[in-house]
Amino acid sequence: LILDRLSRQFAADPHEQAPILVRLGEILLQRSDLTGALDALRDAFDANQEPSAVRGLEMLLEQAGQDRPPGLPDTLEACYQHQSDRTGQARVTRIRLGEASVGDQARLLEQLGGLYDQGGGTPDDALEAWGDLLRLEIDSAVALERLLALASESSARMQRAVELLLMAVDAAADTGFPVAQALQASALLLRETGDPLRCRRGEKDDQL
Prior knowledge:
Layout: H1 2-10, H2 14-30, H3 34-48, H4 51-64, H5 72-82, H6 86-99, H7 102-120, H8 123-136, H9 141-151, H10 155-171, H11 178-193, H12 196-207
Helix pairs in contact: 1-2, 2-3, 2-4, 3-4, 4-5, 5-6, 6-7, 7-8, 8-9, 8-10, 9-10, 9-12, 10-11, 11-12
């Protein structure tokens, strides 16, 4: 409390205040005051977009584990968005995905796939995310488009795309959903020809 009071009294300039708040956050983290550490580090970033505040928040995330204080993912996401850090945003999205209800998973998977596509992960990461979305929502046009586009870039990725397509078909096998049959045809065509564009045309024709 004393350090917090001093930081605000003698460092009215945000450029001077931010490092003091970061140090305060580090001290509170060492004392396992997770909520206090979050407040101090968030204030430090708000004051001057202090990079060390983001590192402190990342340390807080690692140390807190499942006991992380409410608001930490939101705070980190805001910092990453300000820095255009797609890797960090993807990290937060994965955390949310691991705790999401079934109703929120599709939205988060689409967000995660998009972040991977924008450089927040590897193409293989993106392929898995879009495959997971397709398995959850067999009629997701964006998931199929991105999966086929990524498959066209590498033979190894193409093989994995076939596996993901067939897994999506299996997941929808009991639903009687007509897209499942179309995707199965797409997977077989992709395996035989290695042509994602032809595969996509075949999937559209099967839906007609």
